[in-house]
Amino acid sequence: MNRNIGVLISGRGSNLQAIIDAARDGRLDARLALVISNRTDAYGLVRAREAGIDTLVRDHKSYASREAFEQVLVDDLRVRDVSLVCLAGFMRLLGATFVNAFPNRILNIHPALLPAFPGLHAQRQALEHGAKISGATVHFVDTNLDAGPIILQTAVPVLDGDTDDTLSARILEQEHRIYPDAIQHILNGRWTIQGRRVVFDQR
Ligand code: GRF
Q1: 79 Cβ partners below 8 Å, 6+ apart?
Q2: Which domains does the chain have, with CATH numbers?
Q3: Fewer CB atoms near the end CB (10 Å): N or C, the chain?
Q4: Ligand 1 site: residues with CB under 6 angstroms?
Q5: Average of per-residue pLDDT across 143-157
Q6: Is the model's pTM score more than 0.85?
């Protein structure tokens, strides 16, 4: 695996920023080859441009089908020789066209301890459920929502006074820490997937 990564975003891009910062200060040995957003107004595009990274906007609404949209993304990434794709707040479910093009080479970050609270508003789900602990998960992406093998997780306490915003902020801080770490681990190799378990070679 080369060390070219592509990042897919739809919005704010704070996780993208964490990846950019980690690559810049040497915690992450990767080259950000491309950032793609499906929305023109994603603030993450500004972050990428400021960091001198190539960006593309691929609006899913301008393609006839999900397959056509995904094939364009695959081609964009392949042209830049991307070997690992990182979803960072990318708000589209990916189907077989995309997932099969990068088998075990797509990562996502989710703001809960999967398999608890998949889908949208995971922090609010945790609060409403009365969970005392939530957290963040980096996992491989398959065609099911927030369901692929887990790479790294970290726990975050849910405090009595928490609102959606305060809990989200506490989790986000951990997201920014573990996502670059997980990417670095995966790029380094020396891991296998056994069943659903991602196992790292301890040597
Ligand atoms: C994060 O909470 C991430 O876990 C979820 O979407 C949010 C994206 O935030 N998948 P940002 O765009 O990285 O700031």
Answers
A1: none
A2: 4-200 (3.40.50.170)
A3: C
A4: 11-15, 44, 88-89, 109-111, 172, 175
A5: 97
A6: yes
